[in-house]
Hints:
Blueprint: H1 2-21, E1 27-32, E2 35-39, H2 42-62
Antiparallel strand pairs: 1-2
Helix pairs in contact: 1-2
Amino acid sequence: MKDEFLTLFETARDLVTYIDKEHVFDKAGDMGCGGFDTYQSDAFYDLIAEARKALSEVEVTSE
């Protein structure tokens, strides 16, 4: 189980890092004139924040 947990932890950490680094958004709004604005929905933002917090807590307890 320890190896599976480590794999899950590392994958989740990499996913959160990718979302932050690549500016991943789940919503887009039409600005008119052919332009659009991308943004993170509240639900998506909250999920990322909770994942970041959980990862941080695991890192602290595993040190």
